Amino acid sequence: MRVLCTVSGSLGHVHNIVPLTRALSEAGHQVLFLTTDELAARLAREPGQVMAALANTRQRIEPLLTFMRTGQGMTVDEAQRFKDQAYALASVSTGPHLSAAVRGVLPTMKEFAPDVVLRDGAELAGCLIAEQLGVPHVSAPSGAGNILDPYLVSEPLDRRRAELGLPELRDPMSIHRHGRLDCVPARYSFTAHEIPSALVYQQAEPPADQRVLPADIAELPGDRPLVLASVGSELPKAGATIGGGLSLGVADPADTLRALVDAVSTLDCSAVVSTGRLYVDSLQSTESVRVADWVPQPLVLRCADLFITHGGYNGIREALLAGVPMVVLPQFGDQDHNADRVVEFGLGVRLPVATTDPELIAAACRAVLAEPGYTARARHARRRMLALPGIDTAVAWLAALATR
Description:
Blueprint: E1 2-6, H1 11-26, E2 30-35, H2 37-43, E3 49-52, H3 57-60, H4 62-70, H5 76-81, H6 85-93, H7 97-112, E4 116-119, H8 125-133, E5 137-139, H9 143-147, H10 150-163, E6 181-182, E7 199-200, H11 215-218, E8 226-230, H12 235-238, H13 253-265, E9 270-274, E10 289-292, H14 297-303, E11 306-309, H15 313-322, E12 326-328, H16 335-344, E13 348-350, H17 358-370, H18 372-386, H19 391-403
Parallel strand pairs: 1-2, 1-4, 2-3, 4-5, 6-7, 8-9, 8-11, 9-10, 11-12, 12-13
Helix pairs in contact: 1-19, 6-10, 7-8, 13-17, 14-15, 15-18
């Protein structure tokens, strides 16, 4: 089977999809990644070919940046609607860059002749390529895909179809017509809209270099709770803007990390704070708080009693698998929605978006650590996660879909 895998967005999107593409390659299937120049170097380390031809982050938001510079290209009302997260995601997922990318890669895609297209959840060029080639397409697990509103993308996606000579479908669920994949049980789904049920499976074990606990963490005392705090891999890179003055509405990541260290320092615990490789000169490890550039997060979570997270889909999934309750400090994207879901499932508490108040963070941590019900519910979620079928189930499902 030949699989075209389309990925855009952040490294988190890559981390969602590569366990499955590795499993596909190990099963003898051929993979071609169609991605952005921002992600191509990372995917070059994976089995399969890589083609960088999708619009990167700045190119996807170029219509808004043009309006901000010149007042041209969209109406004031359209620009204002970008403040609404659902509209912004739908717009950047369906802009004119989509049909331009499809035109540019179609000869190569015809030559590769995929049997199925596996796409990142909010990446829609894969849908149009699959429609051009007459093959099925499915979405991989994705935080952005969880909050993408199919009704908001339906009309602009039909405009892109018209530009490519494809029939307009006028069907919001066309982006899921062949199914979708997820890595959490339906009981703990983080989807924001009524969309078709997913085939669910367990993500594969982390790579070998992430299966050994660092010695300094292993030596932490066992008579106090262990708290892991992380802002993920994307916030340190995002900063406060994406060029052109377009605010992401997030705090300075250095301020967030300082607040986390100050907060956990007041708790009766041992703590590990992962900086996402962002250097902050004032952050120092102490006897009770380890500050690290990077940690093997899934492994540390197995030892943890509490996870302070920015609320990305990957981190939450890893916490569910480890049975660890959470304090969620959302920043942007799907994280605010995910934070609400964590509260709804009784798996933790949430904080205001982008807060940098150490006292507020510490109070939330104490509340979760003091209430055993959070841990009990997290452990129940872990059992449900462990009852999911293995990743080979998803590989077999894709192969069956390709033959239909």
